[in-house]
């Protein structure tokens, strides 16, 4: 069976369980087993069916992400249709978001339709936008007017497509096989072997990987935003930017908590809080509990991305997912310790605000240049062999026929945007 079928099955299970079962129902545990079955059926099928590693990783990644989402909303936070809210006490309403304490379907509908709509809303709410449970650090909506939103979203999709095309077309399999193999992942233990050329290629590869991930993840998000808003299903206010401002990325903590997308923040928060306070029974407010939550959150992310690696043909042995994400937790703990010591210094011994930010950006850049290859290099195996492993289906740098197909993809997005503008009369 096609892996996408298993992905849709996970979504359907989540919708049914959240909409139609009480928070303490045993069906929710049964649902977890069903979701886990779908994930482990989906993962080995991703590469055979999807062919390219980015496509396989997307299907496998969403499959694993929905399993995490199910674990959170069905069993840890325990969302309830009757209450219109999570009832476990693990998830608290945000003090930054105004609104009622409940999420409910519009009144006057058939009860079954109301439950279905509630299940759909919670299933597709990863950041819980415009609800009392919206996660922290969601960027503000840039374009609130429907016309401006649709035009801006189309431009973002087009830019993402072109940038991904440029990155893919710039790949050189000879350079990749020489400098981007698994043997090049270690850095500190090879300092006397690393040439200036390798260092530059490593830095630019990490930068290109970051831009590429931004374009892939943000591009897909904006495609769904374009479809939802142009059809009238959603309002622009429900689709804030996927990423925060890069200007906030002057520390590892700010990089991960503010700049990077927060679609998995609620899942990892629920898992880490439950592990530290419900399983380990550690009291809240202690330093050790706070840092164990950080480690638990990043380990959860590591497991998620390890399974994602498996779906794209990377073996457990070669995957650097756990190594990378645990390194981020340790880096954040080290960063906090240094920041605490620096904060205790007298004012005259401190740098200016501008220099602090500059030092912070340099620190983040160096840390990511050191750590990202452990995660990224194993996933580049097809590209290193010279195979077509582009995320986009058609390239502007290919044949004339392929250029026309690439142009047709963007033209389709443009037509959706224009039809949405005309449909809503704006």
From TrEMBL:
Q: Which GO terms describe its molecular function?
A: O-acyltransferase activity
- Its topology with respect to the membrane? Multi-pass membrane protein
**Annotated compartments:** Membrane
Name the major location.
Answer: membrane
Provide one Gene Ontology biological process annotation: lipid metabolic process
Transmembrane helix found in the keyword field: yes
Q: Does the keyword Membrane apply?
A: yes
Pathway(s) this gene product operates in, as recorded in its UniProt entry: Secondary metabolite biosynthesis
Q: What is this protein called?
A: Wax synthase domain-containing protein
UniProt domain Wax synthase: residue ranges? 239-326
